Every structure is written in structure tokens, then in C-alpha cells.
Amino acid sequence: MSNPAAAEDRHASWLELFFDLVIVAAVAQLAHLLHDDLSLKQVAVFAILYYAMWSVWTSFSLYANVRGDRVNQVPLLIAMFGIAVMAAAIPHAVHGHGDDYRVFVLAYVACRILAAVTWKRSNLVPTDWPAARQGNGVIPWIVSLWLADSRYYLWLAGIVLDIVTSFVLSLDPAKQIAAEQREQLKQRDVWLRRMARNVRMRPMRVPELPDIKAAQPHARHLGERLGLFVIIVLGEAVAQLVAAAAGVPVWDQALWLSVITGFGLLVAIWYLTLQYGSSSLANYGDRTVALRLTLPAHFVMTGAIVAVSAGLGLIAAHPGEHLPTADRWVLCGGMAVYFLTATITGARGGVPARWVFGWGVPAIALTLVLGALGEGLPGWLVAAALVLIALWHISYRVVDPEQRERRITQVRRAAGTVDAGSPS
Predict the structure, then answer these.
(1) Measured distance CA(315)–CA(254) in Å, rounded
(2) 211 φ, ψ to 5°?
(3) Domain assignment of residue 285, yes or no
(4) Is residue 213 part of a domain?
(5) Number of domains in the chain
(6) Comparing C-alpha atoms, which of 367, 370, 361, 329 is closest to residue 342?
(7) Are residues 146 and 19 in the same domain?
(8) DSSP output for 291-314
(9) In 247-360, where does DSSP find H-type helix?
(10) Which pTM was predicted?
(11) In angstroms, rounded to a whole number, what is the distance separating the alpha carbons of residues 98 and 89?
């Protein structure tokens, strides 16, 4: 950025906030998948479709983050329409017959190709997350247009290819830049040969090669963007809870307990993710986690929150009743994945071993035990137990003075009152 002070004060633009609106609709549609059918296959389909939405949002959000005021608005608006089509096509992608699922696939592929073209025209390479610019991961999705019976396996293969390719390439940014420069040279050679063959064409100046550079994400702005996505997901969870409670004819004690514990759990998740988090992850360490790890963790963590929101909606819709096994596992499984992601990112962020084995691992284990042995418990009691586990996570900064002091230093650094190179 030409103006460092302005760069430090960057916030989400009106275009970016407008772009986020379609994610609200998409998350709502995806959450309904876990209401209709709680089979293992349905959960897997939910994760696949959620990744498709998330990857499109990430590709364009990273582009807007890097370009700042020079962002090309047209691709973002087109992508916004594409995500809206994907959201509307979710029921067809899951329950449709014949070729209905193709609408979702075509919209997804079009959005990812548009993202790749947009990045290419910027002459910037997102070396920290190459999937934003790479199109390899959409190949299995394209193949699925002709292989309907194998589409879920192909979609999963595309996601694995996306993440693995991005992770491997991000380990060597210089190699990415060199590969892009070779591609530009190859394209210019093709142009020169075409000119040489066409003797009647008037001589033209040989085009200069563009200056290919590694994209430099704006860390604070990107953290805000990832945090806004978390807010969108939590907002859908609140909407699920409210809608379910509104459908209950009598506000009895069981409904009050369901609403209070459900809302309490969402507050705890908000506090852990956005108050303690690094890059909108529940990261308790001091070290910065690489973007190639931050983004997959963000995908997993926010997907887990969507699963939790579906579980809380089911509790409020049937207050006082025992949670069926599938419903209980959606809620407890979502929180277990959330705590697992927090533990991994915390370990990468440099937390001491006492946190990993005193807070992280016990939270995962207790949540899984609750899911396995919670049969016969009313839904609100399961939610209350999860709130207590989340509060145990929150207590870490209260019982660990050293961590509290490190957090104070981090806040001061963010405010510019402490030198970034000073020890924590």
C-alpha cells in the first residue's frame, strides 16, 4: 500500500459486506441439510457443499484483501450472483433427480474459474493459499457432470486436491512465482510465432512480460474478514434457536432452559473464537499461524459451528425431550471438532504443553464422552454440559497469569503502543 497509515486502518468495504450477504443465505440453506437428515452420508454432503461455498468466498475475499482500493468490482458482483445460485441449488444438489445437481456444479465451477482469471489479471500470486488462483480442484467437479452416480466421491476428490495442492505449493513461494513467469514466457512465444507466420500482419511491438509478484495479504483486514464470516455463522445459529423457540406453543421451564443454555453456548463460542482468537480462530498461542493452516482451520471450525447451530435448533424445537442419538452427535460432534481445531491451532501457535493436556485434550474427550453416553439426557442438559466445557476453555486465561500478560502485550502491539519486535 502506498499509505501505510491508511493500510493499518483498513476495514471491510461496503462491497465486501454486500458480498457477505449471499453467504448468510448459503449458510441457512446448508444448516437445513442437518435438519432433514442426520445420516453420516448427509453430514459428509453438508461438509462438501459447505467447502464449495467457503472456497469461493475465500478466493474473492483474499483478492479484495490484497487489491484494496484497486479491486475490480465486477468479478465480485458476478461471484455474488454465482454463490446465490449455488445456495438456491443446494436442495437439488442433494435431493434432486437426474441432472438437477448440475446447476450447483456449474455455478461452483464458473465461480472458481472466474476467481482464477481475476487473480491472473492482477499479476499477483497468492503464494500463501494458491487454491484461490488454481483451478485444478474443479476438474473432478467438471467430470461429475457426466458421472452423476459418483458425484459425491468426485467432489470429495476435488476438495482433497484443492487443499493438498495448495498446502504443498505454499511451502515454496519462489517456485510458484517462477512457474507463473514461465507460463507468461510461453504465452509470449506463442504470440511471436503467430506473428511470424502471418506475414501480412503489420509489425507490432512485442508485449512486455507483466511483473509477477507474490500477493501480500493485509493481516488485520483479513482477520476482520474471517471474523465477519464467523459472525455470519453465529448469526445463523441464533436464527435457528429463535425460529425453533418461536414454533413451540408454550414457554415452559424446559423451553427456557433450552434457550438459555443454547444461547450461552453460542456466547461461549463467540468469546473463544473472536475474543481470544488469532485470525478468528480459537488460538491461545503467541506465534502467528501460517495462512495455509489458518484457512483450512477456519473452514473446519466454522463448519463445526454450523453443525452446532443445527443441534441447538433441534433442542429448542423439542424442549425437555431426550435427544435422539443422531441429534446428540450433531451437537457434540460439532463441539468436539471445534475443540480439536482450537487445540491444533493452539499447539501451532506455541501454547505450553499444560494447556494442550489440561484444557485442549480434556475438552475434546469430555465432549465425545457426552456424545457417547448422553442417551436419556434432555437436550438442555447436554447443552449445559457443553457450556461448562467451553467455560473451562475460557478459564485458561484467568488461571494462567503468564498467558494473560502475553495477551495484554498482543493487544498493545495491535494498538501500536508496543514495538512489534519486542519479546512477549
Answers:
(1) 10
(2) -85, 100
(3) yes
(4) no
(5) 2
(6) 361
(7) yes
(8) HHHHHHHHHHHHHHHHHHHHHHHH
(9) 253-270, 291-317, 325-348, 353-355
(10) 0.84
(11) 14
Are the CB atoms for 218 and 66 separated by under 8 Å? yes
- Residue 65 identity (one-letter amino acid): N
C-alpha cell at 226: 474471517
Picking from 140, 166, 135, 163, the residue whose alpha carbon sits closest to that of residue 152 is: 140
Half-sphere exposure of 231 (CA within 13 A, CB side): 11
Look up residue 233 and give its three cell numbers: 455463522
Distances (CA, A) of 213 to 13, 112, 121, 129: 24, 21, 12, 14
Within a domain: 214: no
Of the residues 176, 200, 235, the one at which a domain ends: 176
Residue type, 213: K
Reported as a single tens digit per residue, the pLDDT across 176-227 is: 777 776 666 666 556 556 665 665 555 555 556 667 788 888 888 888 899 8
Residue (of 309, 319, 326) closest to 378 by Cα position: 319
Domain that holds residue 106: 11-176
Same-domain status, 227 and 151: no
363: closest CA among 240, 268, 280, 270? 268
Indicate the SS3 state at residue 399.
Answer: helix
Residues 242 and 373 in one domain: yes
Contacts of 107 (CB under 8 A, 6+ apart): 82, 83, 85, 86, 89
In a domain, residue 80? The reply is yes
List average pLDDT for each run of 10 residues in the chain, which is 424 residues long: 48 89 88 74 89 94 90 93 93 77 94 93 86 88 92 94 88 76 62 59 58 82 89 91 88 91 94 68 55 88 91 86 85 94 83 84 94 89 94 75 56 44 29
Other beta carbons within 10 angstroms of residue 187's beta carbon come to 12
Same structural domain, 170 and 225: no
118-142 pLDDT, tens digit each: 998 888 888 888 888 888 889 999 9
CA separation for the pair 52, 108 (Å, rounded) = 7
